[in-house]
Design goal:
78% of the residues lie in helices and 0% in strands. The protein has eight helices and no strands.
Length: 178
């Protein structure tokens, strides 16, 4: 479905095709993740299992760290927190814990893309998470969470969406969109 949406957008875009493909990919990927999360939650509810939402309105994040730690893919974020961030943070401090969690996420995504479509897209995917880790570490130093909320949201939007081409590009390639 993601591939069809982006191919359709790209075909009608002409010279703006790469930008349209990227933005279409962002919207389609965001929607697909939300749809899968909602479907899984509905299936669990039908089986009598109550579960917390996987996403918590990621677009409302006022910092990159809030986006990753509190709002986006809370299941994976929770696993990384318990098994990577907390053990490292207890021994070496919060910044080391953040770096370790992003390193694990980078390696997991890198490996999945490497196995699926090759080294060059895997390097781009990995670079996305390196940029995100640097953004979290930078915003800690800049105290972004103390900024006025509208300005903090602009910061977050720019630092998550801007480099997302590094993530979305390989995902589009998986679906045959180049």
């Amino acid at each position: 479905m993601l591939g069809l949406v982006v191919v359709s957008l790209r075909a009608s875009a002409g010279s703006a095709a790469p930008v349209v493909a990227w933005l279409g990919g962002v919207v389609a990927l965001y929607g697909a993740v939300d749809c899968v999360a909602s479907t899984l939650r509905a299936i669990l509810a039908a089986l009598g299992v109550e579960s917390a939402p996987m996403q918590r309105d990621p677009v409302l994040s006022a910092s990159v760290s809030e986006f990753w730690a509190e709002r986006w893919n809370r299941a994976v974020g929770g696993w990384l927190r318990r098994h990577v961030f907390l053990p490292v943070a207890r021994r070496a401090g919060t910044l080391a814990g953040i770096a370790a969690a992003f390193a694990w996420s980078t390696l997991l995504h890198f490996y999945a893309v490497l196995c699926g479509i090759g080294l060059e897209p895997a390097l781009r995917m990995g670079a996305f998470f390196v940029v995100q880790a640097m953004a979290v570490l930078l915003e800690t130093r800049l105290s972004v969470r103390s900024w006025p909320r509208p300005l903090a949201r602009v910061w977050t939007f720019a630092l998550v969406l801007g480099p997302s081409i590094l993530f979305v590009g390989p995902v589009l390639e998986i679906f045959g969109v180049r």
